[in-house]
Amino acid sequence: MRRHQHRWLLGVGLLLISVLIVKFASTYLSTDRSSANYRNSLMNTRVLEFALGEQGDAIVQRANFSIQRSGVNSVLFYTAQNAQPKLRHPKYGLIFPYAYMVLFYDNARDTYGVDEVDMSIELPDAPLFEKMTDPQLEAYDRQVYELVMNLQASIQAVGWQRYIMLSDPRLTGRITYRFKS
């Protein structure tokens, strides 16, 4: 009789564990709660609108979400998380893809305002396989490539051009091999 009770308890325990595993998998691995859907819901409400030359505190006050502020001496660092950056400009305005982190800097000693913005843009979700097959890897690479090319095309479409510092080389890439001194 006692052996029968232990088997019954073991069976009930295994059944409860399997129900918990199924519940966990359906809750956290379903498409309804995917990170892409979460990002899309955040993107609609968390737009970080900024203009180059604008004071960092003005950007923070206008945002509808919290932005972390820190600094060393007069250099102020601002960190926004899970936002879609939007550059305000009368002629060259631009909306960037969703970024999980946006850093911008302002020097309180001058009147230049924000002159540098760093964005960590979210890449498409990689397939959750231990070993990706060639077609899966090619599909993922294609998604990442399209993201980068679309971003570059949108930047060029509004008229932005590459800025070359005076100290930077004028020739880059393979063309430097053909340059003769």
Give the SSE map.
Elements: H1 2-28, H2 35-45, E1 47-50, H3 56-62, E2 68-72, E3 75-87, E4 94-95, E5 99-107, E6 116-121, H4 134-157, H5 175-178
Parallel strand pairs: 1-3
Antiparallel strand pairs: 2-3, 3-4, 3-5, 5-6
Total strands: 6
- The amount of beta strand, in percent, is 15-25%
The structural class is alpha+beta
Ranges where pLDDT stays below 50 over 5 or more residues in a row are 12-16, 22-35
Distance between the ends: 96 Å
pLDDT averaged over residues: 77
Q: Report Rg.
A: 25 Å
Can you give a write-up of this model?
By secondary structure, the chain is of the alpha+beta class. Helix content is 40%, strand content 22%. It has five helices and six strands. Strands 1, 2, 3, 4, 5 and 6 form a six-stranded mixed sheet that branches. The longest helix is centred in the first third of the chain and has 27 residues, at 2-28. The radius of gyration is 25 Å and the shape is globular. It starts with a helix and ends with a helix.
Keywords:
single chain; 181 residues; alpha+beta; six-stranded mixed sheet; 5 helices; 22% strand; globular
Would you summarize the structure shown here?
The protein is of the alpha+beta class and 181 residues long. The protein is built from five helices and six strands. Strands 1, 2, 3, 4, 5 and 6 form a six-stranded mixed beta sheet that branches.
